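Appendix B. Raw example, untouched.
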Amino acid sequence: MNMSFALLSGDAGATGGLGISYIISIILVISVFYILCIAPQAKKQKKRQEMLKNMKVGDVVVTTSDFYGVLVDITDEDVIVRFGSEEKGCLIAMKKSAIAEVEKVEKTAE
């Protein structure tokens, strides 16, 4: 009977120590998950918002459908993009979120 009491009391002391190490390991896993997954995604989203904010008329853009065009007009939420040449091209209005990349056009003095 004394032996079973000793085993029970030994188990109770061991679980108290496991509780703290369990909490620390959970905090460690959450921290690693944040560093590897959430932080880079937030950084990428911030960079994308900055790119969309800095677009200017005349910039060459690539849409999410991989079409190249030139920005003709920009509003708060929409853009108008010209696809094709100036004479035979077409103008299409689309959401800013449909822009995947912006290529700045360098203006050269002639």
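End of appendix B.
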